[in-house]
């Protein structure tokens, strides 16, 4: 009897682990196709498959009662997938058990009602917890799941099994849960590392390209600037001097543009200082008002940050970031509209919201923002937003984007506060 029980439990164990190995395919496919939303639901399919397979190949100790490891994929899928996936998997388990039939249907129904109460509390804090906490919580839940089945089977139908069988059953459930947690964490970590590595390689390529081109272009500009300055000094004709002065200003402007694109190679601001961020935002808005007027866009701004709240940044770089994002918002509304800019204080961080009423983006497009040469505009290069992301990261800040097609886009910039400027 023990050999049969152990063999059946091990078969269930393999059926429970097998679908986890295929989740990697979903992650890779979703990354390649930029399908963030479909990844969630495709990943939900695998715990559901595990549940059904475990229930199709159970072991029976008492006639009418089927025992298996269905609780492990149920709890794993619910904890990682959230509330909707939890109720989806509970529905899958209940329907499958009803179709199989037997007295155990009543037992699993009451157990699933208990899980409906416990899982939402665990889901709320699960994702932000350490792997040790995740493992502990999931093992407690699967133990409660097993003991609930045992207690209800005894109360409702006088089903009794030896203590050794229950200990072995609980032990294999806990071992299965621990291995499932470790596998899932490894898969998720590998995917995140791969994603970051690919982005880092793209950034490295564009950084080297920007540094190389900037260096090569600045050399002839410097030589041209020197000769023009000499010509101005030796030129007595005022009109010609004006032409040369204009050419010199344009060379200076070209040099500034090249320096801006060096942000790819050196994203960290070189001369950080404590600034009132609202003043920098106001200046950026004033620079972009002519473009907004040309596109029939009205800029509404509410800047409620206290004047004593300072941000450590390089003003020129920060304004470049703001101008890039505001410009994108304006260009997203070719037929006109409203652009809302708010700045406030949240949890000792400056939070800047820039929201337009433009065409919006899909989740796949949002996930690619900040990548070189990706843009939703026909003639866009994506380099502007890439510069903006680099600048905010260099300031230890964060950019979050929310958008829906035909409902506009919102950029949320979060920056740390430095209350006092250093004494000189």
Assign an overall shape: elongated
Name the CATH architecture of the largest domain: Orthogonal Bundle
Number of strands: 9
Largest sheet: 5 strands, mixed
Show the helix and strand layout.
Layout: H1 2-33, H2 36-56, E1 59-62, E2 65-67, H3 71-81, H4 83-100, H5 104-126, H6 131-157, H7 163-234, H8 238-261, E3 273-275, H9 277-294, E4 297-303, E5 311-313, H10 315-331, E6 337-346, E7 349-355, H11 363-367, H12 383-394, E8 398-404, E9 408-416
Parallel strand pairs: 4-6
Antiparallel strand pairs: 1-2, 3-5, 6-7, 7-9, 8-9
What do these coordinates show?
- The chain is of the alpha+beta class and 424 residues long.
- Helices cover 66% and strands 12% of the residues.
- The chain has helices at 2-33, 36-56, 71-81, 83-100, 104-126, 131-157, 163-234, 238-261, 277-294, 315-331, 363-367, 383-394, and strands at residues 59-62, 65-67, 273-275, 297-303, 311-313, 337-346, 349-355, 398-404, 408-416.
- The strands form 3 sheets. It has a 5-stranded mixed β-sheet with strand order 4-6-7-9-8, with helices on one face. The chain has a two-stranded antiparallel ribbon with strand order 1-2. A two-stranded antiparallel sheet has the order 3-5.
- The radius of gyration is 30 Å and the shape is elongated.
Summary tags:
alpha+beta, Arp2/3 complex 21 kDa subunit ARPC3, Heat Shock Protein 90, 5-stranded mixed β-sheet, 12 helices
């Amino acid at each position: 009897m023990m050999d049969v029980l152990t063999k059946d439990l091990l078969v269930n164990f393999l059926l429970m682990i097998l679908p986890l190995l295929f989740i990697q395919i979903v992650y890779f496919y979703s990354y390649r196709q930029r399908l963030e939303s479909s990844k969630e639901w495709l990943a939900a399919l695998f715990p559901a498959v595990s549940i059904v397979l475990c229930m199709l190949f159970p072991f029976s100790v008492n006639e009418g009662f089927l025992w298996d490891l269905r609780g492990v994929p149920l709890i794993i899928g619910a904890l990682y997938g959230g509330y909707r996936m939890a109720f989806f998997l509970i529905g899958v388990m209940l329907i499958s058990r009803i179709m199989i039939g037997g007295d155990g249907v009543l037992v699993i129904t009451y157990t699933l009602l208990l899980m409906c109460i416990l899982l939402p509390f665990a889901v709320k804090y699960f994702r932000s917890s350490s792997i040790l906490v995740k493992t502990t919580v999931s093992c407690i839940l699967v133990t409660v799941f097993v003991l609930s089945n045992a207690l209800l089977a005894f109360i409702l139908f006088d089903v009794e099994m030896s203590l050794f069988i229950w200990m072995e059953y609980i032990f294999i459930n806990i071992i299965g849960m621990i291995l499932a947690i470790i596998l899932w964490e490894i898969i998720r970590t590998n995917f995140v590392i791969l994603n970051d590595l690919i982005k880092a390689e793209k950034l490295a390529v564009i950084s080297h390209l920007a540094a190389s081109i900037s260096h090569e272009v600045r050399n002839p500009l410097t030589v041209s600037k020197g000769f023009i300055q000499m010509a101005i000094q030796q030129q007595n004709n005022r009109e010609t001097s004006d032409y040369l002065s204009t050419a010199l200003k344009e060379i200076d402007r070209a040099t500034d543009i090249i320096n801006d694109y060096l942000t790819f190679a050196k994203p960290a601001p070189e001369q950080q200082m404590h600034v009132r961020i609202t003043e920098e935002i106001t200046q950026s808005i004033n620079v972009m008002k002519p473009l907004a007027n040309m596109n029939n866009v009205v800029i509404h701004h509410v800047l409620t940050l206290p004047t004593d709240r300072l941000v450590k940044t390089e003003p020129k770089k920060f304004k470049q970031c703001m101008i890039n994002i505001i410009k994108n918002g304006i260009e997203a509304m070719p037929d006109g509209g409203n652009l809302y800019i708010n700045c406030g204080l949240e949890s000792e961080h400056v939070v800047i919201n820039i929201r337009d009423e433009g065409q919006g983006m899909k989740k796949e497009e949002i996930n690619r923002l900040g990548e070189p040469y990706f843009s939703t505009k026909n003639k866009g290069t994506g380099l502007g937003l890439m510069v903006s992301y680099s600048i905010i990261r260099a300031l230890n800040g964060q950019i979050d984007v929310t958008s829906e097609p035909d409902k506009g886009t919102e950029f949320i910039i979060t920056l740390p506060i430095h209350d006092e400027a250093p004494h000189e």
